[in-house]
Amino acid sequence: MNKGERSIHYKHEDSSYFEKRGLRRHAGPWSLWALGVGAVISGHYSGWNLGLLSGGWGGMLIATILIGIMYLGLTFCIAEMSPALPHTGAAYSFARSSMGPWGGFVTGLCENVEYVLTPAVIVFFIGSYLTGIFETGTAFQPIWWIIGYILFVGLNIVGVELSFKVTLTVTLMALTVLVIFWISAFPNIDFSTWALNIGSDGQLLEGGGGPFLPMGIGGALAAMPFAVWLFLAIEQLPLAAEESVDPKKDMPKGIILGMVTLIVSAFMILFLNPSVAGVGSYALGQSGEPLLDGFKAIFGGGTAKVLALIAIVGLISSFHTIIFAQGRQVYSLSRAGYFPTFLSVTHGTRKTPHIAMIGGALVGLTIMLVCFFSLGADKGSAIIGGTLLNMAVFGAMCSYVAQAVSFILLRKNYPAIERPYRSPFGTWGAWTTIVIALVTIYFQLSDSVYRAGILGVAIWFAVGIAYFALVGRHRLILSPEEEFAMEHKEKAAQNLAPK
């Protein structure tokens, strides 16, 4: 046992502790597919397009290919690890088994940043759409945020069966809206004139016909953080492991099907949205509602409010599913004692982690309200729509590096673990994920807006690590993730011992 693990102390709880923290199995492969796709799909409605001004259409295409490769490497690693370690802890669970309690906690903390802030950003955009539709005024936006949290946290609390039904329904609706856009866009595209209308100086090029890479390969790399939004949160699927009917079979199917769906959708929206006559890459690179802009160009502005309501479907899909992930992520760390244990108590009859979901929602909402009232509506919008969004990306990139490292270490140190599915990319897929994630972080640090957000993440990490060092590490619980890690560590040590 190394020095870090000698500083860890466990409390032994009886069966009543886990009875109060039970989950209910319900999800099959299509429910898992919907959970993964639904969490990501809002990124196909908005967010990705901001990268067009960083690298032009060609730069955004290269960035999307690179980020797609990173996510393929990541998802195949997860597809192998999640059925081998089928616990709700997901990233924390993988890192706990491979890197010990401190590695598990830091990895879980990285994911916590992502899953608390991402729904906050999404509900902000939902509020912006609703403000425009109902003309309620900027000062009313916090009411929309509160209504959104109450409604979708409530739906997740009611029960896992209803939660997965809503997830499947809104995910199918969101994809249907995208398919309608693709079909309606094809007769209205002029790729050269509109998609290639950014010049080498980053300004509008009248008449189009501009260069494929107006800012060179550096612009393509600078667009990578924005391309992340086409795939961000697909990695949340293992958080549903203990609510999956057969995680060893269904988890790999769900995550791989989800990734294939997202790749098709990402390249369709990247090609079609900027190519629609009357839109173009330059205008789209500054838009908060790129899909809505495309619909307006095709059908005219008279139906704007109806189109805005349609566009909200994608945001609702992601908001609902990431609220699910947020609750499970907080629940798993709390059940094992890394976070205060009261957060992991589940509802007495519905067996959903209601306290974890409410707690995570309150933290996200509090950050939004502080920004809104301390900085004013306009500055608050820039913070929530930019800095907080980038904080979530930074937390995600850090967790991806940790999960890829976990995969490599598990392959090396625990070869005997039963692996119902094995990644065809092996450790090379994991190393590719690490390299691309680190390059993405580098370009985040190169942008002053991203640097400001990273300072906020650093404070978040400092508070979390201080809590764990002073309190949490002395109160860990032998949860399923902890028992699995300790049991296989002992087996590995026995196998390495001299005969």
What best-fitting shape do the alpha-carbon axes yield? Answer: globular
What number is the mean pLDDT? 87
The largest sheet is: 2 strands, parallel
Order of helices and strands: HEHHHHHHHHHHHHHHHHHEH
Structural class, by secondary structure, is: mainly alpha
Sheet with most strands: strand arrangement: 1-2
Q: Rg from C-alpha positions?
A: 22 Å
CATH topology: Amino acid/polyamine transporter I
The CATH class: Mainly Alpha
Extended strand count: 2
End-to-end CA span = 20 Å
Helix percent band: over 70%
Low-confidence regions: none
Instruction: Kindly give the count of domains.
Output: 1
Based on the structure given, which CATH architecture is correct? Up-down Bundle
CATH homologous superfamily designation: Amino acid/polyamine transporter I
Write a concise keyword list for the protein shown above:
Amino acid/polyamine transporter I; mainly alpha; 499 residues
Walk me through the structure:
This protein is mainly α and 499 residues long. It has a single domain (29-477), classed as Amino acid/polyamine transporter I. It is built from 19 helices and 2 strands. The chain has helices at 3-6, 15-19, 29-40, 52-84, 91-134, 141-158, 160-185, 191-195, 216-222, 224-227, 247-275, 281-284, 290-299, 304-335, 354-375, 377-413, 426-445, 448-470, 480-496, and strands spanning 10-11, 476-477. Strands 1-2 form a two-stranded parallel sheet. The radius of gyration is 22 Å and the shape is globular. The mean pLDDT is 87.
